[in-house]
Design goal:
By secondary structure, the protein is an alpha+beta fold. It folds into three domains: 87 residues, 2-Layer Sandwich (Pseudouridine synthase), CATH 3.30.2350.10; 133 residues, 2-Layer Sandwich (Pseudouridine synthase); 55 residues, Archaeosine Trna-guanine Transglycosylase, Chain: A, domain 4 (Roll). Strands 1, 2, 3, 4, 7, 10, 11, 12, 13 and 14 form a ten-stranded mixed β-sheet that branches. β12 and β13 form a beta hairpin. The mean pLDDT is 93.
């Protein structure tokens, strides 16, 4: 296992047919076992995974709540027990129109109540819902509030009854549930046949690569960003060499008195040294990536 893997963020384009954890594990050759992530994808899905390396694994909480963008193909006229191609598919024989789909989208946009799929990673009584589902248990997942910023129909094929959509949403939104609910609104049933995550926060899959390609490159090169990229939305404070020494030992330094949230503490080269909590003009380190 590599020693001292660099602290940073790798942009992975997950292929279909493998789990997110299998995709992430392929990065162990250059980065070792100390890997984290900021949200997984279902095995059938493709697209952007944010993988944290080295000490940057401690920064996952600053990424998991980011908005996400998906491209999806939704098959109308059938239902799936899992909401995707991996479930038991039952045709309904019902058909819909492009206009009916367009008319249904506003009800699934904005702040909505959504019931996650039974085959999901939601914890039910201390156990993942999908494990109970796979054992044949009846799984009741409680509804929760999610944010769907935009649900856009890009194309509808009346012959195949396939709808191509783009969804921009808040964290925790299930595209499989949106497809299921769309199918019920138009009266045909529906499920997702293809799903691709194209954006997480400010990060794009256009800047990502297949995990096998990344694993073949030296650490800190292919599709890798330094740790500061994970906290780009925070206030930033550049430290002197003396202040860096203080923070490296867990000490506090002064900051703008108006700051009341977390702050990224950088060295004179712009590298992230620590994340600190700011209050009353003082920043107290919470996460130190580069100890003294």
């Amino acid at each position: 296992m590599p020693d001292g893997a660099p602290a940073g963020l790798v942009l992975v384009d997950k292929p279909a047919g493998i789990s997110s954890f299998a995709a992430i594990s392929r990065l162990r050759s250059p980065y070792g076992k100390k890997l984290g992530h900021a949200g997984t994808l279902d095995p059938f899905a493709t697209g952007l995974l944010l993988v944290l390396t080295g000490r940057a694994t401690r920064l996952a909480s600053y990424l998991v709540g980011a908005d996400k963008t998906y491209e999806a193909t939704i098959q109308c006229g059938a239902r799936s027990t899992t909401g995707d191609p991996e479930g038991e598919i039952t045709a309904t024989g019902q058909r819909t129109s492009e206009q009916s789909v367009l008319d249904a989208l506003p009800a699934l946009t904005g702040e909505i109540e959504q019931i996650p799929p039974a085959a999901s990673a939601i914890h039910i009584d201390g156990e993942r819902a999908y494990r109970r589902f796979r054992r044949g248990e009846t799984v009741t997942v409680p509804a929760r509030r999610v944010s769907v910023h935009a649900f856009t129909l890009m194309h509808f094929d009346p012959a195949t009854q396939e709808a191509t959509v783009v969804v921009r949403c808040g964290s925790g939104t299930y595209i499989r549930s949106l497809a299921r609910d769309l199918g019920e609104l138009v009266g045909t049933g529906a499920y997702v046949t293809q799903l691709r995550r194209t954006e997480v926060g400010s990060f794009s899959v256009a800047d990502a690569a297949d995990p096998d390609l990344i694993s073949a490159a030296p650490a800190g090169t292919c599709c890798w960003l330094p740790a500061g990229a994970a906290v780009g939305g925070l206030q930033q404070r550049t430290m002197t060499a003396d202040e860096r020494e203080v923070v490296g030992h867990g000490g506090r330094i002064p900051v703008d008195p108006s700051w009341v949230d977390d702050v990224a503490l950088l060295d004179e080269t712009g590298a992230l040294i620590a994340v600190a909590a700011a209050e009353a003009g003082v920043a107290a380190p919470k996460i130190v990536l580069v100890p003294a």
